[in-house]
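Example record for the data management plan.
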Amino acid sequence: MLSFTDLLSTSYDSVVDFTAEQIKPKRVLDFADYDQRMLVLATASSTISLEEVEASSTATSTATSTATTTPVKVVPPKVSLWPAKTVYPNVDAILPFHRIVAYYGNFLSTKMGVLGQYPAEEMLTKLKAEVAKWEAADPATPVVPAIDYIAVTAQGSAGTDGKYRLRMPDSEIDHALDLAAQVNGIVFLEIQAGLSTLQSELPELEKYLKMPQVHLALDPEFYMKKGNRPGTVIGSMDAEEINYAANYLANLVRENNLPPKILIVHRFTYAMVTNYDDITPLPEVQVIVDMDGWGSPARKNTTYTKIIATEPVQFTGFKLFYKNDILPPSPRMMSTEEILKLKPRPIFIQYQ
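Corresponding structural encoding:
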């Protein structure tokens, strides 16, 4: 579905004897396709046909660059907040050319999400069914499946170092990688830092974050920088901390010749993310703000519209809860059709 091979602009047999045919043109982002897709997300319209998607995919894979500067992104008229005004990503960016549909949780807990609730084979079957559902609902946007694994879990007890968090062993993360490979998907490693910091936790995951298929998610709900025990109050992250994570990932991308990373930030209250307008997406790192609240369709719609849509960063996500979204008085979960009508349209869908 996706190619994560190294990108080499030139290939030759020797420094003396080579021909023009042996030089491979540098691949570049299809800026026109990118802009069009961002406009579709902003307006929740359906203006791209399957033929156009296939044509743009071919153009992207064979395009050469003759420009000496990056094209200036033009924000369409009548669109104020969206598309968000950010940099273009590097070539091979997943978004907005694909939608991501992720299964979330921890293999050691049946209460933290779908990943721990079913045997692996049954879970993957369910994930593939959701992927098919989204492909049918929005055929112009191919879907990438994802395993969204909580690699650092917030804890109710302090632990030996007093940080109120537990790091998962490598064997559990390796299992997440294996499951994603079975569905030709990607992996997100979630951090619920407790009283720890990103400066302490990111290096512990670096060997995985250097892998092209592994991305990062941050959960401010459990980032307890004021010293509270996780679960007693809702935590918070500032743009400075989110930018630290983005720059950490960007350095890994540059140093290891990787495709752009994705950074997810969960949110369901204003206070969970402060100084949002200082969050800085980078050519190496695409940022998704994911609406993490549960409840009835009306409640979720309100949370998304008031909190996520009014404070644009780059892309948006939407979380669905198989259990909590149907607790009374909620009549049902939101449908794919309802979510696709949201403005901006979410490009990341997470199931817990």
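Summary line stored alongside the record: The chain is about 30% helix and 15% strand.
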